[in-house]
């Protein structure tokens, strides 16, 4: 009898997980809280609580050559870096080609994922779901794949800034931002210099620690990830001292434009954090179209005070691009007891206190650039683990 696996979420990771489970002879059941597939890549005019939200102009940061699933190439007429709507259409084509929709239960939320009382022997999990009518149902599964993403709980540090209570303008998180129309002609400050901040900024950009900025285009006009991600690059990065790799890569970036002169020089080394992928920001700084400001200190009436003592007056809106909490409220507390609430799973895969041969919880955090062959290998080992952890 095929082992039953729950797949939570019908975004890119959920769809490929369903396909990989079928390839491995497993019986997947996918629970999707909305009424359609696509997850993060479904644009909605109005953000919905508890779900990811993107803005109208969003273009992916991974080229189609690296993003496409290994068993389903993207259409030849797609651009190398596509708009979110094109990626969503690709996911629809993928689901249709492999007949995945019949394994998805829509408008069904997962409330809890808990070990059964006999878990030490069976390794089974009880999954409680709720449909759109509010009816709860209990299911028993041999394994659980968490593919619900982590861009659903925005982090807003507004309470950290004194004077925000009397600010007459609008404060919002990038999760709420849809397009620039609502802010046209207004004085807006963007706080945070991640990818969303780099895309959304109009004139004033406040950053606490700067960022290393990479363009989507690399040498000879090729997509960056096609030239930067290779077996040779991975080999050299693993063999050479990390400090040397950082120095060489940062030197190359600074040859294009000196991050210090542009006010972008970060406090961290290149390989310590994700870089900012943006084609326009340095040029806009050079033209004076974007003015970089230091970290925000607080609000003063309708103005903002920054850490260097400067102010910006008559501000109409502040957009916080300050990230998300990667929480999974339906998982057992024992799996969410890592530092800072991180998942207590070995390499985001296995709960090590489970039986030597078990069926457990696997979190699939990557939603793009994922080889389906590699995912099949993960799922095959996840459902039939029979080697020690130190051999990964």
TrEMBL record:
Major localisation: endoplasmic reticulum
Report whether NADP shows up as a keyword of the record. yes
**Annotated Gene Ontology MF terms?**
flavin adenine dinucleotide binding; hypotaurine monooxygenase activity; N,N-dimethylaniline monooxygenase activity; NADP binding; trimethylamine monooxygenase activity
Q: What does UniProt give as the signal peptide span?
A: none
Q: How does it sit in the membrane?
A: Single-pass membrane protein
* Keyword Oxidoreductase included in the entry's annotation: yes
Enzyme class, top EC level, equals oxidoreductase
What EC number(s) is this enzyme filed under? 1.-.-.-
Any Gene Ontology CC annotation: endoplasmic reticulum membrane
| InterPro entries in UniProt | FAD/NAD-bd_sf, Flavin_mOase, Flavin_mOase-like, Flavin_mOase_1, FMO-like
Instruction: Tell me where in or outside the cell this protein is found.
Output: Endoplasmic reticulum membrane
Q: Which cofactor does it need?
A: FAD
Give the record's keywords alphabetically: Endoplasmic reticulum, FAD, Flavoprotein, Membrane, Monooxygenase, NADP, Oxidoreductase, Transmembrane, Transmembrane helix
Q: Which reaction does it catalyse?
A: trimethylamine + NADPH + O2 = trimethylamine N-oxide + NADP(+) + H2O; hypotaurine + NADH + O2 + H(+) = taurine + NAD(+) + H2O; N,N-dimethylaniline + NADPH + O2 + H(+) = N,N-dimethylaniline N-oxide + NADP(+) + H2O; hypotaurine + NADPH + O2 + H(+) = taurine + NADP(+) + H2O
Q: Identify one Pfam family in the record.
A: FMO-like
Entry superkingdom: Eukaryota
Q: Do you know which PANTHER family this protein is assigned to?
A: DIMETHYLANILINE MONOOXYGENASE
Q: What does this protein do?
A: Broad spectrum monooxygenase that catalyzes the oxygenation of a wide variety of nitrogen- and sulfur-containing compounds including xenobiotics. Catalyzes the S-oxygenation of hypotaurine to produce taurine, an organic osmolyte involved in cell volume regulation as well as a variety of cytoprotective and developmental processes.
Q: Which family does it belong to?
A: Belongs to the FMO family.
Return the protein name.
Flavin-containing monooxygenase
Write the lineage as a comma-separated list.
Answer: Eukaryota, Metazoa, Chordata, Craniata, Vertebrata
């Amino acid at each position: 009898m095929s082992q039953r696996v729950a797949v939570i979420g019908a975004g890119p990771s959920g769809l490929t997980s369903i396909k990989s489970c079928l390839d491995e002879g497993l019986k997947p059941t996918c629970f999707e809280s909305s009424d359609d597939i696509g997850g993060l890549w479904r644009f909605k005019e109005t953000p919905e609580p508890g779900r990811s939200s993107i803005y109208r102009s969003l273009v992916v940061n991974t080229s189609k050559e690296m993003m496409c699933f290994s068993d389903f190439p993207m259409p030849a007429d797609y651009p190398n870096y596509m708009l979110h709507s094109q990626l969503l259409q690709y996911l629809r084509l993928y689901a249709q080609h492999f007949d995945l929709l019949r394994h998805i239960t829509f408008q069904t939320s997962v409330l809890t994922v808990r070990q059964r009382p006999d878990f030490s022997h069976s390794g089974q999990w009880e999954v409680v779901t709720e449909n759109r009518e509010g009816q709860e149902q209990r299911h028993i599964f041999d394994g659980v794949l968490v593919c619900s993403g982590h861009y659903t709980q925005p982090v807003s540090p507004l309470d950290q800034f004194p004077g925000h209570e009397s600010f007459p303008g609008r404060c919002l998180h990038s999760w709420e931002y849809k397009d620039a129309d609502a802010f046209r002609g207004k004085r807006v400050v963007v706080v945070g210099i991640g990818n969303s901040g780099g895309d959304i900024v109009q004139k004033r950009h406040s950053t606490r620690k700067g960022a290393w900025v990479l363009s989507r285009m690399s040498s000879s006009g090729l997509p960056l990830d096609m030239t930067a991600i290779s077996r040779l690059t991975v080999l050299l990065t693993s063999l050479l001292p990390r400090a040397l790799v950082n120095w060489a890569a940062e030197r190359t970036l600074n040859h294009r434009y000196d991050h210090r002169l542009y006010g972008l020089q970060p406090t961290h080394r290149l390989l310590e954090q994700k870089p900012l992928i943006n084609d326009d920001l340095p040029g806009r700084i050079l033209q004076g179209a974007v003015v970089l400001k230091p970290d925000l200190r607080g609000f003063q009436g309708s103005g903002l005070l920054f850490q260097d003592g400067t102010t910006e007056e008559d501000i109409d809106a502040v957009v916080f691009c300050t990230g998300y909490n990667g929480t999974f409220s339906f998982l057992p507390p024992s799996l969410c007891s890592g530092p800072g609430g991180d998942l207590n799973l070995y390499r985001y895969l296995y709960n090590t206190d489970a039986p030597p041969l078990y069926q457990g919880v696997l979190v699939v955090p990557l939603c793009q650039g994922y080889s389906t062959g590699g995912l099949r290998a993960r799922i095959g080992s996840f459902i039939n683990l029979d080697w020690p952890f130190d051999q990964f």
